Amino acid sequence: MHSDPESTLVDQLSRYETLIEVGIGNRPDVAAGLADRGCRVTATDVYNRSVPDTVRFVRDDVTDPDLSLYRDADAVYALNCPPELQRPLAEAAGTAGADCLFTTLGGDPAVVDATPETLSGDTLFRLNT
After folding, report:
1. pLDDT digit string (tens) for 25-52?
2. How far apart are CA 40 and CA 14, in angstroms?
3. How many helical (H) and strand (E) elements, i.e. helices and strands, does the chain have?
4. DSSP for 69-82, written as a single string
5. Which pLDDT value is given to residue 82?
6. Are 30 and 16 contacting, i.e. CB atoms less than 8 angstroms apart?
7. What per-residue confidence (pLDDT) applies to 1?
8. What is d(CA 5, CA 94) in angstroms, rounded to the nearest whole number?
9. Rounded to an integer, what is the distance from CA 105 to the centroid of its chain?
10. Are strands 114-119 and 122-127 parallel, antiparallel or unpaired?
């Protein structure tokens, strides 16, 4: 039996205590799953988004980030991260001294120096530091 990609991502990311999800969009499942495991999760997006009560939401643009948001993060991650947002994501994580992880959409490549890890139904990229 295969586990779904969201639960596999939650398994991988739940080792971090404090996480920032960049560009949550309308898919709060991973952030909610992390919060359910006791992680502190802040979700960001350029638009106001609805997130579960267990997830903090802050409107932010990773291409012009409020770096104070990222200061206490252990990990900064993005799901279905397009190539044009991978560098800003990596820079925001690097400023905070946090790990940077992301998945891409379909055939999009990783355009930053990252190591792929194949998960059930997805590939999680971890920025090389």
Report:
1. 999 999 999 999 999 999 999 999 999 9
2. 10
3. 3, 7
4. GTTT-SEEEESS--
5. 96
6. no
7. 38
8. 26
9. 13
10. antiparallel
Structure-block tokens of residue 121: 């139904």
Helix, strand or coil, per DSSP, at residue 55: coil
Alpha-carbon gap, residue 71 to 107, rounded angstroms: 32
- Give the residue, 5 or 111, on which the prediction is more confident: 111
- Give the whole-angstrom CA distance, residue 17 versus residue 20: 10
Which structure tokens are listed for 27?
């898919």
Quickly tell me which residue has 């359910």 as its tokens: 36
| Nearest-angstrom CA–CA distance, 53 and 107 | 33
Mean pLDDT of 97-123: 92
* Predicted local distance difference test score (pLDDT) of residue 106: 79
pLDDT of residue 120: 81
Contact 98, 76 (CB under 8 A): yes
Tokens of 88: 């800003």
Q: Which residues pair with 45 in a beta bridge?
A: 59
Q: How many CA atoms lie within 13 A of 86 on its CB side?
A: 22
Per 3-state DSSP, the chain is made up of helix, strand and coil in percentages (nearest 5) of 25, 25, 45
